[in-house]
Design brief:
Helix content: 25-40%
Number of helices: 5
CATH topology: Rossmann fold
Radius of gyration: 15 Å
Strand order of the largest sheet: 3-2-1-4-5
Number of strands: 5
Structural class: alpha/beta
Number of domains: 1
Order of helices and strands: EHEHEHEHHE
Strand content: 15-25%
CATH superfamily: HUPs
CATH architecture: 3-Layer(aba) Sandwich
Distance between the termini: 30 Å
CATH class: Alpha Beta
Largest sheet: 5 strands, parallel
Length: 158
Amino acid sequence: MRCPNVPGAAKLSAVQRIVVGVEDSGGARAALAWAVEEGRVRGARVEALLAWSYLAQPSIEEDEGFDPGFDERRAEALLARVVDDVVGASPTVDVERRVVCDLPAHALVEASEDADLLVVGRRGRGGFRGLLLGSVSQQCAHHARCPVVLVPHENTAR
C-alpha cells in the first residue's frame, strides 16, 4: 500500500533500522516490545535509545526530584534494565543500546535522520507540563524524518 501523503511511507516496505525511544515507563516498554516484534518480522535492526540530561532525567516517577548524581553510567544501567526486562534473556532480535545526553524529543528526531522507522510510546501526560514542554511523542510525530509509530499503553491517560 502506498501512502503518498506520509513522509517516508515508501520506505516502510524496506525497513532495515528501527529506532525506539526508551525510558522506564509503561508506554516506552510497550513501544520497545512493539519495535522488537516488528524487527523480528521484518528482519530489521532495533536500536533502543535512551536520552537523558539534567533537564530531562528518565524516571518512572513523574514527580521525582532533580538528582545531581544522575549521569551517563546510571542512564546506561537504566537502559540495560529496561531492555532486559522487556526483551528477556533469549531475544529474537539483537537490540543495540544507545544512551545520548540530550533532550528526548531532540535526540529521537536526530536519530530519525538515518532510521527507517521511529517508535515511541505515549505517556499521556497532560496539564501544565504538557503545555510548557510538549510531549515527546508529539514532537517526534511533527518533526521526525522518517515514519513514526506511536504505541499507546493500556494505562495511558487520554
